[in-house]
Amino acid sequence: MKLANYVYGQWLEGAGDGIALQDPVTGEELVRVSSEGIDTARALEFARNTGGPALRALGYEGRAALLGAIVEVLSAKRAEYFDIALRNSGSTEADAAFDVDGAIFTLKSYARAGKALGPARHLKEGARVALAKTDAFQGQHFLMPLSGVAVFINAFNFPAWGLWEKAAPALLAGVPVLVKPATPTAWLTQRMVEDVVRAGILPAGALSIVCGSARDLLDHVGECDVVSFTGSADTAARMRTHPNIVARSVRLNIEADSINSAILGPDAQPGTPEFDLAVKEIVREMTIKTGQKCTAIRRVLVPTAASRPLADAVAAKLASYRVGNPKSEGVRVGPLVSRAQQAAALEGLAKLREECETVFGGGGADFAPVDADPAVSAFVQPTLLYCDKGLDARYVHDVEVFGPVATIVPYADTAEAIALARRGRGSLVASVYSGDAAFLAELVPGIADLHGRVMVVDAAVGANHTGHGNVMPSCLHGGPGRAGGGEELGGLRALATYHRRCVVQGGPALLEALSRDAADAALLGS
């Protein structure tokens, strides 16, 4: 079966044989994808000229209702999506829930939040500005929805959530969506789009999908479009310098590589709640989705005295996790999504091992995944490393192994902990396990400008925290520097990406008329 593309209001198969999507456990071919012969310029024009005006005619609360209807469709098909995730991504039930349920939860959040904006069609920002000696001539800032398309070029690890965490604020803003999912796991994204389209929820042109190669898609984006990319820093760099992106100053939002840290404070010694909470979260981040998360813990920064006990505690828990075919009883860690990702992860792990000691795992001769043939499957054994080279280490701070691998790095004092965290050169998230007020007062401001999110966990927070790797729709997702410099989510703040600030200068009657059809932009901060 070849997955159809949905463009200019039509379901179209791409030409040629296409690219095969495979089961990462058995190597079985599942479906094929192709974008050959798809007119991407026409797809974008149809979305701009047909989907955009129809969406923006509804106002914010009307579009919020559409998101609510999408939730109902996806919720009813949840079991089917779990099956696709199992077959195409090798997802355990917990992994599939993380992706599929995360998508549904995010849509619910925006459906609920969007109601607060009411029937308005644009946003008013701040008070009027006097521009003359009398009130005859004034200025008013507005945020106007873009008249273009939100183009999503997404990563393979979250085929469900990756679509809807971006699409929810874009559609709520009144901007149509065209998604190009990562090829290896495009099946789940395509099925969700198909289900929503066939349910007739959205206006024609509001949601499109191109499966397979992006081909010449970026050649046709324009000044009022937004391109959002999640993936490698190398690909992101090429996109930043794409001639059409540069020439037309296309708004580009990027989430790229991230060497995220978990940091234990000096008080997080063995036997304390903070130590135990850190162990639990490190193991969870190494194993959920087999470490294939942009937000996963890659480095664990620990006071020297606690570093070996922490390594022993994490290794002991990892030893109890069964790795293998997610269909087999008791398996908690599945494969990577493809043999190509397995090869990349093993290559990165080999570099890390040049400067690290292996505490647990490593994929030696004694590693055998449950009910799977290593010759055709894509497994990587959860691996914990230990590096005592600190800031002199190279690969630990620069190589992101996109799999179940983390490295413990001891530090001597708070200044060194800050320096090590900053050596990641920009991360999506750092989690800190400490109740030491003096330590936190120095560390958090010391790393905040190079992190999109800092999560602090102490005994009082306990099990109530949302998780190092969990991206909550009400909070910012993104990070500076190496992490791409982009911003997503953050509640209604995300709508700002799909609006353009403009000041209208004129008489009071005009500004009053424009303001009557506007919601207060201050609501974006809620």
UniProtKB/TrEMBL annotation:
Lineage: Bacteria, Pseudomonadati, Pseudomonadota, Betaproteobacteria, Rhodocyclales
Classification via PANTHER family: ALDEHYDE DEHYDROGENASE B-RELATED (PTHR43111)
NCBIfam families attached to this UniProt entry: PaaN-DH, PRK11903.1
Key word Oxidoreductase present: yes
Pfam family, one: Aldedh
Protein name, UniProt field: 3,4-dehydroadipyl-CoA semialdehyde dehydrogenase
Gene source species: Aromatoleum bremense
Domain of life of the native organism: Bacteria
Family matches, as SUPFAM superfamilies: ALDH-like (SSF53720)
Domain Aldehyde dehydrogenase residue range list: 11-444
Key words, A-Z: Oxidoreductase
InterPro entries associated with the record: Ald_DH/histidinol_DH (IPR016161), Ald_DH_C (IPR016163), Ald_DH_N (IPR016162), Aldehyde_DH_dom (IPR015590), PaaN-DH (IPR011966)
